[in-house]
Amino acid sequence: MNTTYQQIIDVNHIASYKSVEHIPDILALGRSENINPASQDQKRNLLLAIDVQNDFMESIGSLAVPGSKEDVQRLTKWMYHNIASLTQIICSLDCHSLMQVFHPVWWIDREGNHPSPFTIITYEDVVQGIWTAANGEHDRSMDYLHNLEIENKKNLCIWPYHCLEGTVGAKLESQFTKMLYFHAAARSTAPRLIYKGQNPYSEMYGIIKAEYDPEHYINFEVLNAVSQYDSIYIAGQASSHCVLASVNQILEYFADNREITSRITILEDCMSPITGFEDSTKQQFEALRKQYGIHICKSTDINL
Q1: CB 247 within 8 A of CB 205
Q2: How far apart are CA 201 and CA 137, in angstroms?
Q3: 10 burial via Cβ count (<10 Å: 0-12, 13-18, 19+)
Q4: Is 103 exposed, middle or buried (0-12, 13-18, 19+ CB in 10 A)?
Q5: Residue 291: CB partners within 8 Å, gap ≥ 6?
Q6: CATH number for the domain formed by residue range(s) 39-97+163-301
Q7: Beta bridge partners of residue 22, listed in sequence order
């Protein structure tokens, strides 16, 4: 390509609020490349980028993932080197309101205090009166906690306020955004942004469905996209939670179709786990590799 990586990405401003996107300039650079439109690709390659958002970026995020800055650098380099073969990019974005079951304001203790971030709240804790729903949503909250346990889901963790709708923390990381739109202009296509996590009564780690939802919402837009591409590459944050849950949900849906599950590649050097989940995350991805035939590779080993 005529455009260098450095003309698009300033690595010193990854995960920095000093970053200036200058999107019109990025679009002009992309259009100048004269690459065939994505619609003409014979082999269709999809990048599924999970929650590459400011609030998950170390040094600036309220729920920062260690290693995320380097992950963005590696991911944007991989996108740059594969622009001419990368057909489509789908980005998930966590998007929350203040009053949600996993935020401190939802709960109070006997003294009227809200829980600290990373507090675990169980069904039994609420039965014993250790925690109470502060907004009068007692029955719905109890139902949620009970179903997390009987369905063997993650315990309810109280997270720091993150990805609140309308805040800068909810935005895609700026340097990743620049590469996203450079790709869009160069390939005459548009990224697809998928918002998740807006149900106040449930956490939604994965892109397909909530942890527990009596209405059984399923994101068929993403599932249909996965089925239509020859290869699917997955990256993002955090590998231990939202990436792992997204991969699990996609594989569960296509469990009987090894032809589709074997198309999926995890870009392991373009994602990082939340501290304390390093070993369990690696073990769970390895189990998925054995069960479903997915691939786990470094981005530097994948040339489209």
Answers
A1: no
A2: 9
A3: middle
A4: buried
A5: 251
A6: 3.40.50.850
A7: none
DSSP state of 233: E
| Residue 65 amino acid letter | V
Query: Do the beta carbons of residue 173 and residue 22 sit within 8 Å?
Result: no
Task: Give the tokens for residue 300.
Answer: 């530097």
Which tokens belong to 161? 């306020």
Q: What is the pTM of this model?
A: 0.95
What are the boundaries of each domain within the chain? 39-97+163-301, 104-157
The pLDDT tens digits of the residues spanning 142-154 come to 999 999 999 989 8
Q: Report the SS3 class of residue 108.
A: strand
CA distance 176 to 174: 5
Q: Of 217, 209, 224, 285, give the one whose Cα is nearest residue 90.
A: 224
Helix (H), strand (E) at residue 6 = helix 5-8
> CA-CA distance, 154 to 280, in Å (whole number)?
13
- Per-residue pLDDT band at 20 (split at 50, 70, 90): confident
Strand partners, 271: 236
238 upstream amide cis, omega within 30 of 0: yes
